[in-house]
Amino acid sequence: QVTVNCFDPDGMTLNVEDKVVNVGEVFTVDVTVEDFVNINKLFATLQWNPGIIELQNWTVGNHNLFLFGSSINQAGPAHLTIEWDNSFSLGSTLSDGTVLLTLTFRAVGPGGSNSMVAVVNDPVAICVNQFSTGEIGLNTNNGLVEIRPTVGLTATFPTLNANPGENVCVDVSVQDFTDLTRAAFSMTWETDVLEFVSVTDGGPLALDAFGNFNTLVTANGALGFEWENPAGTTLADGTTIFQVCFEVVGNPGTCSPLQFGEIPNPVDVQTTSSNGFNVGLNGISGELCVLNPLNFQTSISDIFSVPGAQACLDFSVQNFEQLTTLQYSINWNPLHLVYDTLLITGTLPGFDQTSFDDNLTLTEDGRLLIHWQAEDALFGESVPDGTVIFQLCFEMTTAALDCNPVAITSDPQNIVVK
After folding, report:
1. How many Cβ atoms from other residues are within 10 Å of residue 359's Cβ?
2. What are the distances in angstroms from CA 76 to CA 73, 81, 223, 325?
3. How far is it, in rounded angstroms, from Cα 153 to Cα 45?
4. What are the CA-CA distances from residue 300 to residues 284, 309, 312, 315 (Å)?
5. Domains and CATH numbers, the chain
6. CB-side exposure of 193: number of CA atoms within 13 Å?
7. Mean pLDDT of residues grouped by 10 in the chain (418 residues)?
8. What whole-number distance in Å separates Cα of residue 332 and Cα of residue 135?
9. What's this model's pTM, rounded to 2 decimal places?
């Protein structure tokens, strides 16, 4: 219901207090008066959004209005009615700022939500009577309750590759781990690609592999996690809180998503200021793909950065054995990443300024070309596994918590490895 308040200079005024509160907080809202002079009747309704704030109780202010407390009633979850009628008296006068009544609410809505506490005309119609004058107008200054935004936990799986039969441990890292008192969530994977082996314990949260992890359904590709510290814990962004270890059982070319979910442990993240409410989990999925151990491979590093900062990605190689030609395209979203430079590491003989094309027409469209030729066209070049052959640097322009892929593709130049 919307009320339109036209000021009546001869009327009295009800002021409803504004409040900014935390999720789950129990708080009070005062309703005060102005120009309450010789008033002997006051009818009105207070309304709010019960999905955002929930009325707990109310108390009458420190004033002498006859039987005022008995005139207040709750009419459902969203209304409180006032039907004070002392018409046979000469009326009562209260000084400006007197608290007429105080409402106690609990913030039950999500962070960032709000609710008006408004004086409305239904179910009890507004009526104010002044001795000797009769009915006068009611001016209202409605209140606004705002629930502070909550910052949920961000947990991240990496994207990585492994060889068939390899044992690999996958980091679970966090951001916004600030004053957390509880964290619970689940992780899932494909069992035809990965077979669960173990979880690491210890680390910054002093985890226990038996006490903090639910391993009952790992055969079905799910693992539960649960941790608590009532005093609250803060960790630096990028901290690895534990590792999940697998044996790679899939065939070359297969991949398994690494995801966060609700089974077997539902998501429940709480902080010292969330008053028992779940502030949520922002789960960033990863992926593990199975390599052909004999195939050449280029890997692009994952990094965390902030808007406006420069971020440089490592391009590393494996199985770089007697190659004579390396050609491919690199693509990214130019709305989120602005190309800065390509840094030559000097680790691959013959890789120089002629080995790539970063002209402005290409990079403004989110593309860069690699075209390297070995100086020895017969035997080629070989470098050790893990060698970073160059770095690609960007300026981050996207919003915080966004992920921006940088990919090797055949657009506009075909992939050629010889």
Report:
1. 10
2. 9, 10, 44, 76
3. 40
4. 18, 19, 10, 5
5. 12-147 (2.60.40.680), 153-290 (2.60.40.680), 297-417 (2.60.40.680)
6. 19
7. 58 94 88 94 95 93 90 93 90 94 91 92 92 88 89 86 88 91 95 93 79 91 94 91 92 89 93 86 88 77 83 92 92 92 96 95 95 92 94 83 83 87
8. 70
9. 0.52
